[in-house]
Every structure is written in C-alpha cells, then in structure tokens.
Backbone:
C-alpha cells in the first residue's frame, strides 16, 4: 500500500482492540508528513489506542463519515488540502460534538482557548507520555 493512497485504516489493530476487555479507544491521526504520522500511530498503538490514519482533513472526514466509533481526532495544524487542522477541529466539533479534539503543531503556538470547547493543544515535539496523558485527559473530560 502506498503512503499516499486514500484514507488509511489498520484493520489488524482493530481486530487486536476487539480482543481486549475495555472498549477500543479509536483515534484518527491526521498528519500529512508520513513519518510523523506513522510515529504518532505507533506511539498510540503501543499505549493501547486504535489509531486510524489520515493524510489530510478530507481523509479524516471520509473516515468519520463511515465510522461511528471514533473517540478522538488528533490533528496537525499545517496541512495541504481543503482545510487546515484548526478548520478541521471546528468542523468536527460542529458535526460530531462527542468526538474529542487534540490539535498539534511545531510551527504555531496556540492555547486551548483557540480551539473548540474541550479541545487541547499539544506543542511538537511531544513525548509519548505527554501525548497519551493529553489524549487521556480529553477522553475523561
């Protein structure tokens, strides 16, 4: 499979998550840079999340329109395509209010107040501990 062909879903991770006692914590990871996206996906999978990959906002929206089990969208701010990560966060919040939002960037500094209610900002680079703690906090809110 090419890194640049359509929305990416890792069904092996879905199967693994279905075999655990707690409900799967599915996260859409939206990042246009493949290596950064794959690193985030690996970190989240290692922490017990079920990450689904999207290269841009359009891919993320396609995933969200076809699934009803997504708990969090974790998106970069700077992305090519129809909308950046901030616009995506606002769109998701308006269309799917129960989905939690975490926005990240290494280029712009935002505060949680710049995001839809309940959203969190995570500055790049981040550690696995900070990433998983932030996702855990938004899920608990």
Residues:
């Amino acid at each position: 499979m090419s890194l640049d062909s359509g929305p990416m879903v890792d069904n092996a991770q879905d199967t693994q998550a279905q075999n655990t006692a707690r409900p799967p914590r599915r996260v859409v990871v939206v990042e246009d840079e493949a290596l950064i996206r794959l690193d985030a996906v690996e970190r989240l999978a290692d922490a017990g999340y079920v990450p689904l990959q999207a290269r841009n906002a359009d891919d993320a929206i396609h995933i969200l329109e076809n699934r009803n089990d997504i708990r969090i969208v974790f998106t970069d701010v700077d992305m090519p395509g129809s909308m950046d990560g901030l616009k995506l966060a606002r769109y998701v919040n308006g269309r799917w209010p129960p989905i939690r939002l975490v926005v990240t960037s290494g280029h712009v500094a935002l505060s949680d107040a710049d995001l839809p209610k309940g959203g969190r900002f995570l500055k790049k680079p981040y550690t696995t501990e900070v990433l998983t703690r932030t996702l855990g906090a938004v899920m608990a809110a």
Remarks:
- The CA atoms of residues 13 and 19 lie 10 Å apart.
